[in-house]
Amino acid sequence: MLIRRPVSEVFAAFVDPAITTRFWFSRASGRLAPGARVTWFWDHCGASGEVRVRDFVPDRRLRIEWPTPVEWLFEPHGQEATFVRIAAWGFEGDPEARIAQALDSTEGFNLVIAACKIWLEHGIDPRLIVDKQPPDGPV
């Protein structure tokens, strides 16, 4: 996804919970940094997950385990835009289970990157993550 913001701003959006909470999770126990272990919380649905930073190259690459590996690559496009690639792998189970996990991961990260783009480019929280699972269940 191309995000029309400098690479340093886009990278910060994924490592600084003061920014990330504007479009993804509700709160975090800390900031992502080399070797960090933090917990992300989605208070609207009572979920949380532990994240371990495995690789941290400022403005270039972020790789975590959550619980499977997830990697963000940040490619500058001129001075004012960044192309972000997200990959997730390491799904377990039989082939059908792995396919289901991969599809769920793809759907989730597509929503996250779209929400990040809208927040960084327009300052609007589109509530994509919250509205995917409303507290009172699907409509």
Structural key phrases:
4 helices, alpha+beta, 139 residues, 31% strand, seven-stranded antiparallel beta sheet, Alpha-D-Glucose-1,6-Bisphosphate, Chain A, domain 4
How many alpha or pi helices?
4
Q: What's the architecture in CATH terms?
A: 2-Layer Sandwich
Q: State mean pLDDT (0 to 100 scale).
A: 95
Please write the CATH class name.
Alpha Beta
How much strand?
Answer: 25-35%
**Pairing-aware structural class of the strands and helices?**
alpha+beta
Helices and strands, in order, run as EHHEEEEEEHH
* CATH H-level superfamily title: START domain
Number of domains: 1
The unreliable regions are: none
What general outline do the C-alpha atoms trace?
Answer: globular
Number of strands: 7
Walk across the major sheet and give the strand order: 1-7-6-5-4-3-2
Task: State the major sheet.
Answer: 7 strands, antiparallel
Distance between the termini: 29 Å
The residue fraction in helices comes out at 25-40%
CATH fold descriptor: Alpha-D-Glucose-1,6-Bisphosphate, Chain A, domain 4
Compact summary:
This protein is α+β, with helices and mostly antiparallel strands.
Polypeptide structure, described:
The protein has 139 residues and is α+β, with helices and mostly antiparallel strands. It has a single domain (2-132), classed as START domain (Alpha-D-Glucose-1,6-Bisphosphate, Chain A, domain 4), CATH 3.30.530. Helix content is 33%, strand content 31%. It contains 4 helices and 7 strands, in the order βααββββββαα. It has helices at residues 7-15, 17-20, 95-122, 128-132; strands spanning 2-3, 27-28, 37-42, 47-57, 61-65, 69-77, 81-88. Strands 1-7-6-5-4-3-2 form a 7-stranded antiparallel β-sheet. β3 and β4 (47-57) form a beta hairpin. It is globular, with a radius of gyration of 15 Å. The model has no long low-confidence stretch (mean pLDDT 95).
